[in-house]
Each structure stands twice: as C-alpha cells, then as structure tokens.
Amino acid sequence: MGDMRVGISGWRYPPWRGKFYPDDLPQRLELAYASREFSTIELNGSFYALQTPERYARWHADTPKGFLFSVKAPRYMTHILRLKEVERPLANFLASGIFELKDKLGPILWQFPPGMRFDPARFEAFFKALPRDMHHAIEIRHDSFIDPAFTDMLRHYGMALVVADTAGKWPYREDVTADFVYIRLHGDRELYVSGYTDTALDDWARRIRAWARGGEPRGARRIDGKAQRRASGRHVYCYFDNDAKVEAPRNAKTLMDKLGLPMRAS
User: Fold this and answer.
1) By C-alpha distance, which of 165, 238, 228 is closest to 205?
2) Cα–Cα dist 179/40, whole Å
3) Which of 37, 111, 148, 211 fits a disulfide with 181 by CB distance 3.0 to 4.6 angstroms?
C-alpha cells in the first residue's frame, strides 16, 4: 500500500476563520494549524506570482516533520505564454525558492486553461525541459487532450494526469500515467462550492485505496483504456478545492477518517 495523503488547496480563506480556524488564532499561525490537521497542502500562491526563498523557508519551518507541499506552477507559463518560450520563466520558477521546502517538497502541479488545446509538439518540448527528478502532475481542461497520444506522452515522461472532479465542467479521466496519483476535488455538483456527501466520500475512499494498492478502481474512466498495475503500490495525493463554503476542510477530514489516516500531527 502506497502513502495516502489528503489535504486542502490553499489555507488562507477569510470565511474559514471562526469555522475551521479558532476565533482567536492569528492569521500568521493558520498554516501551522492547518498543517497539523492535514498531511499535505496545495500551495497555490505560486500560481499567481513568484514567491521568495525566504517565504518558502518560513513555510518549511512552520510545518511539522513528515508534512508535504505540492506547488502550483505559475500561470504566467501555462495561461499567458501557453508554453511558448518558457525556458527563462521555467528557470525563474525553479530558482524562486521552491527547493527551500527541502524534504517537504512534493509534486508540482501544472494546470492548463480551458481554451488551451493539446499541441503534441509544444507539450513534448515542455515535458523534455522539466526536471526528471521531480514529480509533475498535469491538469487539463480541453477535450482535445482526450487522445491516447497524450497519455502515452505522460507515461513516457512519468507525469501524472490529474484526476479532476469539476462538476462536469471539464474533462474527467482517471488514466494512471505515473508512479503516483494526483486528485483535485473542486466540487461534484457546483464548482468550488458544493460539498461531497458521505456516499460520495465513501466512493473516493474506495478509489484511493485501489490506486494506493497499485491497482485501479472498478469502472475507471480512461482515455486509452489501458489499466495499469504496480506491485509496490502508489502514493496518492488528494486535495479539496471546494473552499467557498468551508466544505474543503470538512470533506478532507471526513475522507481521512474513512481511509483510517491520522487526524492530527503533533
């Protein structure tokens, strides 16, 4: 059985104060609090702007031993440049301080906009440029990626296709293309808003266990139809991004309970 981690996407949300966070908790201590409730958090400020080495070092210091961050890569490369001439921006991102997370650096998330189509040559060049000693997860939002050539490319470079539940708005597929699985739960009925029912979370727990054991869940929806098995199991990262009504931390804690994961770090 591989390592299973359940967490949240971001941690600084004003509506969470007094609901998830205690009323008297200073804002500067919110990461320290959240990182002791969950074993992983998706760091999304890096999507909007390059962070600093000092900030990454502080985040490392504020979190407990064994904690992992995933880091969302800059939208400047994915949404503005759309992978054109990204050599320098990529170098700037890698040099911005992410390695100050040290042993707490997990996967890098690359999210592409709904209007961006699958361009095999462009993605091949981009994947070749990425460091091979890091885990990369690719989130797509255009139907043109429903192409076996895309999943073949991901497997060749050892990159994970993000299993993204987006209330039916964008493509949902579960192809296993790497030695880890990356899940983003944005809401199954209303994007970023709706919470997951107990029945829905039971189903996600079933799927996560199957992936962690090295298999695949029954009824998996794939692009290319190829089931993948791994004898040694897989690491699974699951992040709740339905934050608008404080559903994300509630759902994450319920799913952790269903998976039998520790509920709080020391």
Assistant:
1) 238
2) 18
3) 211
Domain 4-259 has CATH 3.20.20.410: yes
**d(C-alpha 171, C-alpha 144), whole Å:** 10
Decide if 247 contacts 196 (C-beta within 8 A): yes
Handedness of CA 105, 77, 149, 142 (dihedral sign): positive
Q: What are the structural domain ranges in the chain? A: 4-259
Look up residue 228 and give its amino acid: Q
Q: Encoding tokens for residue 191?
A: 């994007």
Q: What is the pLDDT along the chain (266 residues), one digit of tens a residue?
A: 899 999 999 999 999 999 999 999 999 999 999 999 999 999 999 999 999 999 999 999 999 999 999 999 999 999 999 999 999 999 999 999 999 999 999 999 999 999 999 999 999 999 999 999 999 999 999 999 999 999 999 999 999 999 999 999 999 999 999 999 999 999 999 999 999 999 999 999 999 999 999 999 999 999 998 888 888 899 999 999 998 889 999 999 999 999 999 877 65
